[in-house]
Amino acid sequence: MRHPREGWIEPGVRRRPDPEENAISRRQLLGAGAGLAAGALLAGCGGSSSGSSAPTGAGGIPLPRQNHPVKWPIYSDNKPIAAGLAPETGATLQLYNWVAYINEAVIKNFCKLNNCKYTLTTFNTMEEAIAKLGSGQFNFDIFFPTVDVLGQLIETKMIRALNHSYIPNAANTWADYHSPFYDVDAQYTMPYSIYTTGMAWLKNKVNLAPGWDMPWQASAYKGKVAVLDDDRETIGLALMKAGNFDLNTTNTAQIQAAGNSLKQLSSLTGVRIDNNDYTDVPSGKTWVHHAWSGDMASAASYLGNGVTIDDVGYWFPSNHKGPVANDLMVSLKTGSNPVLSHMFINYLLDTNNALENYSYYGYMSPLNGVTPQRLISEKLLPPQLTSTVVLPDYFSKGIFELELPPAATAVWETTWNSFSKGL
Questions:
Q1: pTM exceeding the 0.90 threshold for the entire prediction
Q2: Helix, strand or coil, per DSSP, at residue 63
Q3: Class of the 39-193+326-382 domain?
Q4: What is the rounded radius of gyration, in angstroms, for the C-alpha atoms of the chain?
């Protein structure tokens, strides 16, 4: 499973504008344009004592599902820090995050308020990140993982249980995040970002109704159609096109049928596989693209000649039955600044700070104060792309693509390789 930030290169042509400049540049742009209208870690790891009836993965670790929530154990040697501790002094807060996935201006503001320094180390894949953390050579304080590796991080005691007394801004998060299905009672995690996967297209070029079958209907636009370079997302697209919304299926026949449907798509449209939705649609290179909402929220920054923001569309179904995902914030056990770590997580859960962060990377935080109206009024999002906003009920109505048992993972990967390697 890939992530919207996999493959980003910094510096390079895929890098977003400088974080301290982007908040201003996007506001100015929209103000002017509005009138336009991890297997090694699991070796020897025992099963969870959560008692959940969720399916299990490698090492017997439970795999959380929306209909099978998991409450993870709190280990005697990995309890939350005590309440009422003073923040560390003379500290350097060490952050470990995806490339181009946080506004450094926000970090600098936090450090100025709390008289500390920081380092920001980035990674390009979750596998890379887990391997580095597992080496024991790094003492990062805060990590931004995906939901599918949470069990590994908890069972190997890489992350510490949280003391919520340091995180009062947790009250700002949507109700479902007070006790999410993947971490009942939010014992180890706080949400960082949330996004959907839908369809992006150029309205001035494409005369099709958006839907999960849109790429298959685009034979008239051969060479101008693309799907995401992501096995789970794109096989999932083919599953939904066939009316199958179990995006965590372990049924080999269903998965392989989806793979055959993708091969048909290739014959019909000469489909490309890439994660350049955020640039290729607004620039006019691609007319129909399977896309992530956070990428398309930034479309105004990448408009090509003759393309206006009115031409860019993003669709996610009105019943909200489609792929939804969120990233997490966790405190790493080996970090030397546990109090500051909690305080920084709390800082990012402040609405104003979350909006400043959004102004750089385009992926919204699931906070009550981050609304379509607020994003538009602060000129962080053009009203034409309100469909990229994720709303609170998406968490319960949307479909999370979650970690699979190893045997099923192998089927998904084999099916994907059969399709993607042929292009």
A1: no
A2: coil
A3: alpha beta
A4: 21
- Predicted confidence pLDDT, tens digits, the chain (423 residues): 667 767 665 433 333 333 333 433 333 334 434 333 333 333 333 333 344 456 888 888 999 999 999 999 999 999 999 999 999 999 999 999 998 899 999 999 999 999 999 999 999 889 999 999 999 889 999 999 999 999 999 999 999 999 999 999 999 999 999 999 999 999 999 999 999 999 999 999 999 999 999 999 999 999 999 999 999 999 999 999 999 999 999 999 999 999 999 999 999 999 999 999 999 999 999 999 999 999 999 999 999 999 999 999 999 999 999 999 999 999 999 999 999 999 999 999 999 999 999 999 899 999 999 999 999 999 999 999 999 999 999 999 999 999 999 999 999 999 999 999 877
- The CATH fold assigned to 195-323+400-420 is D-Maltodextrin-Binding Protein; domain 2 (3.40.190)
The two structure tokens encoding residue 312: 């860019």
Sign of CA dihedral 181, 128, 350, 367: negative
Same fold, 39-193+326-382 and 195-323+400-420: yes
Specify the pairing of strand 92-98 against strand 288-292: unpaired
User: Quick one: tokens of 216?
Assistant: 């298959």
For tokens 């083919």, name the residue: 238
* Domain boundaries of the chain, sorted by first residue: 39-193+326-382, 195-323+400-420
